[in-house]
Amino acid sequence: MTTQMSTRYAIGQQEVKTFTTQALRDAFLCADIMCADQINLVYTHYDRFIVGGAVPIKQPLTLENLDALKADFFLQRRELGVINVGGAGKVIVDGVEYELAFKEALYVGQGQQQVEFASLDAEQPARFYINSAPAHTAYPTKKVGLFDGNVLEIGSQQTSNERKVHQLLVNGVVETCQLQMGVTCLQPGSVWNTMPAHQHDRRMECYFYFEVPADQAVCHFMGEPQETRHIWVANEQAVVSPPWSIHSGSGTANYSFVWGMAGENLAYDDMDFHQPNELR
């Protein structure tokens, strides 16, 4: 099989206070999800969220059904979000092709039985970042371009966090059950994302960092506001954020990241903020 999936179980605040650096990375960092000619997935027990990647080069990749899902096909009880962070590609959903350029997104509704990923040019392959969450209703499959959703320009150069937030697969743009996704792009000279930091106890979130230069890195901050921890992240790596944790980051150069969420609330601004001088 070209589709592989590992499992991460939920971990509470008290446990994390005792973790070493490696234990934190083992629990929350998804380091190897973009591999040539494979679909690599991580099943988390935070809202049953799945995070992963598909990199088709030699041939298209099919999202195969997995025994762990106890389903007849992958999307029998799930919805899927895809954002292309590589060369031009296409996603084929039950025979219908959707071409995705760099940073374009696709929502695939519950009940679609076959999903394939393909690159238009093997020399510049597509790199599909994938999120999936449980679904209770079948909504239509829909493509969303980088500027087809809501675009927020927030932050400033003075606070090193000038950024554009592209709300792609969100309430008001696409009908979903609970999955929400978008892309945030840090502008040159800015390195801080999601500052002031926040939590949202009603849903979990996952950050996928990309456009990180090969010789640079991002320091991802997590944990309770008064008990923060950090994980150093390289290009095309993701960090799973539990509902009790803040999620913020600072890079050694500007970068972009995909944010994906699932839970009971579709309101993007459902956030409990913590100012920088309140963090410990």
TrEMBL record:
Binding positions for Zn(2+) per the UniProt entry: H198, H200, E205, H247
Enzymatic class: isomerase
Enzyme Commission code: 5.3.1.17
Catalytic activity: 5-dehydro-4-deoxy-D-glucuronate = 3-deoxy-D-glycero-2,5-hexodiulosonate
Pfam family, one: KduI
A Gene Ontology molecular function term of the record: zinc ion binding
Gene3D superfamilies tied to this protein: Jelly Rolls (2.60.120.10), pectin degrading enzyme 5-keto 4- deoxyuronate isomerase, domain 1 (2.60.120.520)
One GO BP annotation of this record: pectin catabolic process
Cofactor: Zn(2+)
Note on how the cofactor is bound: Binds 1 zinc ion per subunit.
Biochemical pathway: Glycan metabolism; pectin degradation; 2-dehydro-3-deoxy-D-gluconate from pectin: step 4/5
UniProt keywords, alphabetically: Isomerase, Metal-binding, Plasmid, Zinc
Similarity remark: Belongs to the KduI family.
Function of the protein: Catalyzes the isomerization of 5-dehydro-4-deoxy-D-glucuronate to 3-deoxy-D-glycero-2,5-hexodiulosonate.
This protein's name: 4-deoxy-L-threo-5-hexosulose-uronate ketol-isomerase
Organism: Saccharobesus litoralis
